[in-house]
Amino acid sequence: xxxxxxxxxxxxxxxxxxxxxxxxEGKRINSDTTGFxxxxxxxxxxxxxxxxxxxxxxxAQVQYKFKKDLILLLGDWRFTIADDKRFVxxxxxxxxxxxxxxxxxRWEVFNQIQYNELLSLRMRYLAGTxxxxxxxxxTEQYKAYLGTMYxxxxxxxxxxxxxxxxxxxxxxxxxxxxxxxPFSITGTTYYQPLLKDWRDFRVxxxxxxxxxxxxxxxxxxxxxxxxxxxxxxxxxxxxFGLATGLVFRFRP
Length: 252
What we know:
Layout (H helix, E strand, L loop, with lengths): L1 H19 L14 E14 L3 E14 L3 E14 L2 E18 L2 E12 L4 E14 L7 E16 L4 E16 L5 E12 L2 E18 L2 E12 L9 E11 L4
Antiparallel strand pairs: 1-2, 2-3, 3-4, 4-5, 5-6, 6-7, 7-8, 8-9, 9-10, 10-11, 11-12
């Protein structure tokens, strides 16, 4: 029973932080060439100790880039079960269109649908549009973007069969610092207040730091957090994650 409680708490915090705000900035494929790019991946794991634990994860991303337009489609599905008890069952699909008007101005339109059984989220549908500003010049070493989008939010909560129809601002600031030195930093911060009540807001951040410690060995640190001013009753208002690891490259 103890291991179930610990697993449930961990999965609850993970599901809450990953389901509320999807970091699309971190999923864009930076490429100067037109045409298709993307990937499909999947994993399955099974572990047997005092209980049988099975996990299935699938992810897919497809991006098509025109001269002035970009279409991005991505999705993922996660499922974890232990002795016939589901601890994770959630999925998400996101479609985004981006048109370049000027070197510093783009306009975006997006749709997103997701569900999360652990959070009693039967369905959340998002639709939004707004400008994306490039705050830096042509240099590839330093990049910064600012987005300010209107977002419509439909949310169906399964536990009490309640439906919420909300209108939010979805603003983000994204940056990359890669000065061709032994380190790089990337990060995105989101701010999503309710337009009719700005006291109801979410703030999320996803950041990555990488430093070369040897000519083919890097150390990386990933940090993310989410603060929700009015979260569901059983979920903490603030959650965060911190991970560190090593990356070995076969090529210089």
